[in-house]
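@channel anyone free to eyeball this complex?
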Amino acid sequence: MLEVSHLTKSYKKTKAVDDVTFSAGQGEVVVLVGPNGAGKSTTIKSIVGLLRFEGEISIGTYNNKALKAKELLSYVPEIPTLFPLLTVREHIEYMALAYGKAPDEEKLNALLKRFDLDDKVDKLGDELSKGMMQKVSICSAVIVDPEVIILDEPMIGLDPKAIKEIKKLILELKEANKTVMISTHMIEMIEDLWDRVIFMKEGKVIENIVRTEADLEDLEELFFKITGDSDE
Amino acid sequence: MNKSLVYLVRKSFINFFKKLIKKPLKALGMLLLVTYYFFIPFLTKGVITDLGLNTHAGFVLIASIGTLYLTMPLTLTYFKRKGVSFKKQDINFILASPTSPKQALIYALSKEVYINLAMQVMFLMAAVLVFTVPFLTSIIYLLVNIVFSNLLSYSLAVIMYASEEITLKQKQWIKRIVYVVLAMFTVFLMTMVVSQTLESGFDFAYIISVLSSPVVLMIPIFGWQLGWLNLIMLGPTPVRLIATGLFFASAIGLTFYAYRMKVSGEYYEDALSFSENIALLESKKGDISLTEAFGHKKKNYAYKGELKGLKSNVIFHKQFIERRRSKKYFLGWSDFIYLIAGIGLGLTSLFWDGFIVPDYFLEIMVGLSIYLAVFFRPSADWKSEFKNHYLFLMPDSPLNKLFNASLLEHLLTFVRAIFLVVPAGLLMRVSLLEILYAISLNVLLKAMMTYVSILIEAIIGAKIGHTFASIISMVVSVIIMIGPVVALFFTQTLSTFLIFTAISLYAILVLFLFLYLSSINLRNIESLEE
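replying in thread with the prediction:
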């Protein structure tokens, strides 16, 4: 569903991402992990179509920059930022319209309730806390029923209940045969979610492990073993 | 236009007014600002009439300057791929979604549409009421101008940002060529005006004739735009007709090209980088300059220093160390300019007989100080203290905190006063006592203005909006300064000592009043939050 082939992205003379290749199939939860500056965010922004890059990225059968590809993909950014003059409900309705869909009121209300936003529907974007903004971003990405969903550090700033809900949501998306890609530092949070884990370091993929093919090891230990970073 | 973008604009527009209703003070402030804005033509009517510019030709001059120095800089930013305001929310909700890249760009450009329309309405009012241009002529000029100049500027923005047929390198070259043409134009204009002024004195009619000359009207895009203005206001000539034709043709041609060209969103990276710079600028709230936010690193100097002082006095020492690290010689250009001004004033009085009379030394020095205190307010260190939570956590009285946060500012005012007053006084050969009076009054009046600013701009500004607050602050400053200005008029008739004492007492009284009012309002971080 998502194919990244020989992705290279340079800023002036620095290579932020160097010849990265991987793929994610339908119903697969792919986790991108790596230390700071490993190139995770650059890879994600390239997939979403926000950066110029060398190489090929396709979503479904389309090049990632095509509008058809974007209709299949939704994205939760690392730092949530909302329109200051749209309410919580309007953000989610806006997103549905942007994907050419009429807002599904029943689904929208269920999402608001699930993420404890039902009493804040009329709050404006600039009246919300960071955690609330993150929840609105997640709801906006889910309402469009995407084939591929990309979550960049989705659990930062969320309360324990919301973290539990988002984990549940990821598993539901997987059940519905959607492709989920998560970039995170919080390895312990995705321990029971991943199907494929891609370790990145210094802009390169250093390991691409499929859960079914690997000896089930603790992901955190695996991280330190592979990246060569000690937690001592 | 995409349904979602229409929804976004419509809802934001409605919510803007709903939000304003909830904040009546801010609404009142905005209303006064808008009223003031539309009054500008009436406020300038007297000056324009006195200068003999209240004619069609005068309107051509003002509108040409407006086009060249207000519209053109904005259009030039498109050539640098920087003028379109993208924010982080635009990136996350618009560019990352299946919205056409061209429509996303037009949406971002349309954020300026209200300001642009307000400016055009003001121009319409000015044309009819100040420059006596018939209403029909004015409305035809403005409607045609709104349509074609916007088509031209939007299509240029779309092409320079989004065209993937023109390479980045080619865009760089286009940008350079535009700059060279405009530099040549500026040199031409300056040379003509300066040489004419030296030859037969300054005359607005000559500037109008230069701005309406074929050399100017034939400058691609910017000159052509002036062709239409000249044609409708001053009547047809072959050059004006050709320039107008080229203006319409270029607007239509470029719009057609922009409409037809293929765009996949290569410009998104520039938009993303712009939004990150803007976010940085907003998060630092005045602690970072525009150029620093856009990638130019601020130079810092090695200085170890040692924090001294207890409780809120530590604020002063912290500011001192920060200044040592940001300014190589502790003082900067903005301080040395006072020294240059002081020497300049002294030399003028020495070599230009009768231009500056030393008898009026105190009046000149204090008058200058009043003028600078009211109209020039460089960014002060106390402003950044108010953004820190520790200011409120510190176990000290608000009065002490305010005083210590502004102490460095007072010391700098003292240094600047010495720079200005001492050389001027020595060269004018005034008494030492007069020099001391002038320095003291400079410091006291500036300190008084500092606390006026703190109360109105920082504390009241948090409630009513900072733009409105700075206007109020300016008005209050002018009112407060009436006393010292009136007193200065009596310096020659009454004794200098009496006037010095009167102004000093007045300044100390107002200073403590505003310091006290600021301190009782500075209870917690909420007093500074909008």
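from a first look: Chain B has a mean pLDDT of 84.
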